[in-house]
Amino acid sequence: MKKQTAMNSDWIATAATLSAALPYLQRYDDAIVVIKFGGHAMTSAEGMDSFARDIVLLQQVGVNPVIVHGGGPMINEMLDKLDIKSEFVNGKRVTDEATVNVVEMVLSGSVNKRLVQAINDQGGTAVGLSGKDANLIVCDQTNPDLGFVGTPTEVNTNVLKTLFDANTIPVIAPLGTGRNGETYNINGDTAAGAVAAALNADRLLLLTDVAGVKDATGEVVTDLRAAQIRELTTEGVIAGGMIPKTETALDAIEGGVRAVVILDGRAPNACLLELFTDHGAGSIIRA
User: I need a labelling partner for 41 at 20 to 30 A (CA). Which of 1, 4, 68, 176 fits?
Assistant: First the structure.
């Protein structure tokens, strides 16, 4: 009898959670949510499966999810195996022709297809793309000193909207095409921000390995405005790897994204917590 009582208690809690989520389910019905997936969760089979399950659930309740993924650790591993040495300029990797070929092979190949398969295994329908497909992302060279590193200048969203109509989840490798057919490697956050802006997405979720943007005391700030981001950056509170993420957030908001959230992709069900609960997850940045 005690076991049955405990089970009934769990069922009641689950039903209460679903009921509390109803306003948020209605809020995000038919919304476009772009999600940058990378970091530790990508290297963990359990993290990959959990993420894929959440993405399928998002689509099931009416969200149009778009996934842009990274793959830095996998690229580094392959470069080491092929004994391709990397040069760095001001801490940034120079992407020469040999390196960009490896980047394309890893991102468009093994990494993209693993994520597509994980989503399909959870009952979804996903299709893998790179920014080169259908000229999805057209780039200019970011800096000649860095080689084949690109900055998005055009995002052609027709192929993504066609996939939405077919109830199919786009999974995008962050590569782009140049004006003369070059292949460019794009920072994953930058690519996700450009795609989100072009789609006028309701949310851009940047999944990373930290809990969010922290203030001077080390506490995560859950709600931020663009002006606060600039102030914290000027003061040196936002520093290191968080700077490109917050810059991506500001660019995306300026481009038409309603809000950007920086959150810990290692946390179970991080996307669901952010979208469908009162307290959310991570740091939300608004205009």
Answer: 176
Closest-CA residue to 157 (of 179, 138, 177, 174): 138
Query: pTM for the complete prediction?
Result: 0.91
pLDDT of res. 4: 54
Residues 53-72: tens digit of each pLDDT: 999 999 999 999 999 999 98
Q: Report the alpha-carbon distance of residue 179 to residue 25 in Å, rounded.
A: 41
Is residue 52 within 8 Å of 124, Cβ to Cβ? yes
Q: Which two tokens stand for residue 32?
A: 């476009």
Assigned token pair, 85: 């040495």
The H-or-E segment that residue 35 falls in is: strand 32-37
How far apart CA 157 and CA 154 sit, in angstroms, is: 9
Rounded distance between C-alpha atoms, residue 13 and residue 20, angstroms? 11
Burial bucket for residue 50 (CB in 10 Å: 0-12, 13-18, 19+) = buried
User: Residues 93-115: pLDDT tens digits?
Assistant: 889 999 999 999 999 999 999 99
